[in-house]
Every structure is written in structure tokens, then in C-alpha cells.
Write a structure and sequence with these properties.
By secondary structure, this protein is of the alpha/beta class. It has helices spanning 58-74, 82-98, 100-111, 115-136, 172-185, 200-212, 226-235, 248-260, 284-296, 316-328, 348-363, 395-398, 414-421, 437-446, and strands spanning 4-10, 15-21, 24-26, 29-31, 38-43, 48-54, 144-148, 151-159, 162-166, 189-193, 219-221, 241-245, 265-269, 275-278, 308-312, 367-370, 385-388, 405-411, 429-433, 451-454, 473-474, 487-495. α9 (284-296) crosses α10. A hairpin with a 4-residue loop joins β1 and β2 (15-21).
């Protein structure tokens, strides 16, 4: 198959041609898969063909892992200074920054997210992530520990080795860089498997990795299916650690594969069913804006989405009216249209999954207040959907939908809403809205979630960790805490006087 594809954009917000590789990227070269596998990528906004790209299999993952291992020993890891790794990460950040419009266009085309969101939010975050971890590359320090007068010890933070990164389709490049940046800063090499649905930005990244000057084999990109390439990452005896973002179901499979193979280290950022808790002392107009963003941004395809909305009884009716009116006015449509807020779901499978949840909400007795139908006649668009009169055991309250569907419930007392908010197998995030700082701190302390926002929502900070409690994951992305995912701590003991 052709080694590259050029897509011509002619939209209101971006015009130009973008060329991207279509092959696997292994050991610094673009290669066809061993079994010559391909996949046709579909534009979720139009259901039309975008491009045909390669998909790797188990054999390709092993070849990539072998290349990563060889490079780790000879040209990376402890052979390269933190300062040198930092310079390469900064160079990659510069190149991504210079290609912001092209990458944003690929993300909008391939994922269905709006061009504006990709350009204004995703790409600046990606650049900042690279610069943040570039700053850490030469600051990975251990401790000197004098235990007795005759003995001294110190610790070293060393690379784990070959990292396997499996990333989802909702924020393809952001999630990849969230793994890649700290892994490379710590001196690891990486084998990354982007989603088979959304590999375009990762493939474009490969050209920038070569241009930045990374040694061949430091970064290897193998798009592929989860049950073949993804499973191979988990089962590989060469890969030392897996960093995964995706569903809890798949996370369990990764964990099992890691245990059955070489007992590789894992970090898992998994599903969520995040509550937004709104007390009656808030500025309702401001809260409505935040909560709209919390559930409907990125088409609801976001693990931290505030899909369970709890509103205190005193403002419930007023909030519901304003929330409904605002949701009704959201612009759903072409991701390249300047005014669009919500694009299509990623695929026909995801569209059907979300519609099935909407059906279950109706069957189980929730009141459909808004939406619940397909939007338009082309693409995988779903109307912003609001359910009320929801009960705790309904599927739309308990299960992650990953779509533009909100379940709104009324509460009276603080203790009641904390119990309801914690009534879930997930524990990824939570939002609390109140002007009472004492109450905010109490609720934040009692909610079983890895992240709590007070008086806003869905606003990550690269300096603060992201990860879940309960079945929402193991380990943390972002911030200094993420570095723990990618280093081994070695204790060195030195005898300065002990004799036998």
C-alpha cells in the first residue's frame, strides 16, 4: 500500500493539505505490517472514507518491542543524559506547536471533535505536557541515606525499560503524549498502540519524532485492534510496563495479561461515572455553564464526564429549566463549523451503544426531558439528552455511557448526596458547587474519587495527578506523581567500615 496519504481540507476554519504516513513506525522506519493488515478510516461526521492505514498484529508488536529493547541498551536509557532527553522533548514540543492547525484538523476529521476544541484545548495541552516533563528529565533524583556510622546508602531512580502504551480514541494524541512524555523523560523507550479508529494524529507525530532527532527505536507506533495488538502489548515478555487508558473491562484484561506474562508493572486510567453536586447557595447561571461543559464537551466521550447531576431541592426546578434551555441551544453538527459545540460520536458502534442506554432509561422509568434521538440524517450525531426522575439502580445512573446523556437527580441533605454520589463502582472524578468553603471541603473529603473540582469541572492541570479510586484505575497520570509509573527505585548500600 502507499506509504503516505494526503487529505485536502476545504472548510470554514481550516484550508490546506495534510500528508500523513499510513504505515507502522518501528525503529525509526515506516513499515508494512507482517500480515499486511489494513483498516479503512471513516469520518464520523459524514460516514465517508478518509484513508486506508496499516494495522499491526502480535508479530509487529514483538518486532517493535525488540527494537525498543535494543535502543534502550545502546542509545537511550542510562546511556543518555537527562539534559539530552529534555532537549529532544522540547524540540518535539516546538514541532507540534508549529503544526497545530494540521494536527487539529486531523483530530477533528478522525475523531469528530470540533476543530476549535482540538486547536484551543488539546494541542496547547499537548505542548505543555511535553515541556513540563522535559523539565523533569534532568531532575530525577534519589536520596543519600546514612543508616549507621559504618554504612551509607543512596537510591537511584532508573528507567523501567520498554513501556507499552495503549491509548483510547477520544483524545488520541493527548492521551498518547500523557504516557509518552513522562516515559521518555525518565529514560524509557516506548511501543504505543493507538486506537484502530483514530490513528491519524499519532501517525503524523511519527514524522515529527524523526525530525526532532530521537534515536530510532525510542518511539514505536503500531496502530492495531485491541484484541490482537493490544493483547500482545499486555502479554509481551519484552515489554516491562503497560500504561493504559480506556474502559474498566479492557483494563481487567490488561491486568490479567500482565500477570500471566512477565508480571509487568501497570498503570490504568479507567472508566468513570462522575457526580456533579450542586448546593442551593450557588450562582445558578454560572453553574449551568460549567455543568453543561462537564457532560456535553467532547460529545460526552470523556472519562471524567459529570454524567450524574445532583441538585439540591431548593433550586432544582430553576436549575433544571436553565440547564434544559442551555442544552437545547447547543449547536450540534459539522466539527469544522465555527459555531459547533458538539460533534458526532466516534463510530456506528458507539452511536448504537449510546442509543441503547437512552432506550434503557426510558424502559426503566426515567423521564426523558430533552433529546434522546439521532441528530440529522448523516453521521453519528446524537441530540444532547437529559433524563430526570432517575433512581440509583438505573443503568443510566450506574454505568458509563460515554455519550451526551445526563441524569439529573434531586437531593435534600449533604449526607444524603454524599451517599448517593459514592454509590458507584467508579471513583474517577467529582464536582462540588457551593459558596460554603467548609461544606466544599467536607464533601471533597468524603467523596470517593481521585479528583474533586470545587466550583468548576473538567479542568485538568498538568501539575496535578489524574487517576481513580475503586474500579477507575491504578496509578496516576499527570504531575510529578506520574513519574513513579516510569522508574524503578534502586537502593545502593556502601560499606565504609564494617568488617567481618
Amino acid at each position: 500500500m502507499a506509504s503516505t496519504c494526503t487529505y485536502q481540507f476545504n472548510t470554514a476554519v481550516y484550508k490546506g493539505a495534510v500528508t500523513f504516513p499510513t504505515q507502522l513506525f518501528i525503529n525509526g522506519e515506516f513499515l508494512d505490517p507482517v500480515n499486511k493488515g489494513t483498516i479503512d478510516l471513516i469520518n464520523p461526521a459524514t460516514c465517508k472514507f478518509i484513508a486506508r492505514v496499516s494495522v499491526g498484529d502480535r508479530e509487529d508488536i514483538e518486532i517493535a518491542a525488540q527494537a525498543a529493547r535494543a535502543t534502550l541498551k545502546e542509545h537511550w536509557g542510562l546511556k543518555v543524559s537527562g539534559e539530552a532527553r529534555s532537549k529532544l522533548l522540547h524540540k518535539l514540543a516546538d514541532l507540534i506547536d508549529a503544526n497545530t492547525d494540521k494536527i487539529a484538523a486531523l483530530e477533528a476529521l478522525n475523531v469528530g471533535k470540533t476543530f476549535h476544541a482540538a486547536k484551543a484545548v488539546d494541542l496547547p495541552t499537548i505542548v505543555s505536557l511535553l515541556r513540563y516533563y522535559a523539565g523533569w528529565a534532568d531532575k530525577l533524583q534519589g536520596k543519600s541515606i546514612q543508616t549507621t556510622p559504618d554504612k551509607i546508602g543512596f537510591t537511584r531512580h532508573e528507567p523501567i525499560g520498554v513501556v507499552g502504551a495503549i491509548v483510547p480514541w477520544n483524545f488520541p494524541l493527548s492521551m498518547l503524549i500523557m504516557k509518552l512524555a513522562p516515559a521518555l523523560a525518565c529514560g524509557n523507550t516506548i511501543v504505543a498502540k493507538p486506537s484502530e479508529f483514530t490513528p491519524l494524529s499519532a501517525l503524523f507525530l511519527c514524522t515529527l519524532i524523526r525530525e526532532a532527532g530521537f534515536p530510532p527505536g525510542v518511539v514505536n507506533i503500531v496502530p492495531g485492534y485491541g484484541d490482537t495488538a493490544g493483547q500482545a502489548v499486555g502479554e509481551s515478555m519484552i515489554i516491562d510496563k503497560v500504561a493504559f487508558t480506556g474502559s474498566t473491562l479492557t483494563g481487567r484484561k490488561i491486568m490479567e495479561a500482565a500477570a500471566r506474562s512477565n508480571l509487568k508493572k501497570i498503570s490504568l486510567e479507567l472508566g468513570g461515572k462522575s457526580p456533579s453536586i450542586i448546593f442551593d447557595d450557588v450562582d445558578i447561571d454560572q453553574v449551568v455553564k460549567w455543568v453543561i461543559n462537564g457532560i456535553f464537551m467532547n460529545q460526552g466521550e470523556i472519562c471524567i464526564a459529570g454524567s450524574r447531576i445532583y441538585v439540591q431541592a431548593g433550586i432544582y426546578d430553576n436549575f433544571l429549566q436553565k440547564f434544559t434551555e442551555t442544552a437545547q441551544c447547543l449547536s450540534v453538527g459539522d466539527p469544522f463549523s465555527p459555531g459547533t459545540f458538539q460533534g458526532p460520536q466516534i463510530s456506528e458502534r458507539q452511536f448504537t451503544r449510546v442509543m441503547d442506554y437512552i432506550k434503557s432509561g426510558k424502559v426503566e422509568g426515567a423521564t426523558l426531558r430533552l433529546g434522546g434521538e439521532r441528530h440529522g440524517t448523516e453521521g453519528y450525531f446524537i441530540q444532547p439528552t437529559i433524563f430526570t426522575e432517575c433512581t440509583p439502580n438505573m443503568k443510566i445512573v450506574q454505568e458509563e455511557i460515554f455519550g451526551p446523556v445526563a441524569a439529573i437527580m434531586k437531593f435534600s441533605a449533604e449526607e444524603e448526596v454524599i451517599e448517593q454520589a459514592n454509590n458507584t463502582t467508579y471513583g474517577l472524578a467529582c464536582s462540588v458547587f457551593t459558596k460554603d468553603i467548609d461544606r466544599a471541603m467536607r464533601v471533597a473529603s468524603n467523596i470517593e474519587a481521585g479528583t474533586t473540582w470545587v466550583n468548576f469541572t473538567n479542568w485538568l492541570d498538568i501539575g496535578l495527578p489524574l487517576g481513580g479510586f475503586k474500579q477507575s484505575g491504578i496509578g496516576r497520570d499527570l504531575g510529578e506523581d506520574a513519574l513513579q509509573n516510569y522508574t524503578n527505585i534502586k537502593a545502593v548500600h556502601i560499606n565504609i567500615g564494617i568488617k567481618i
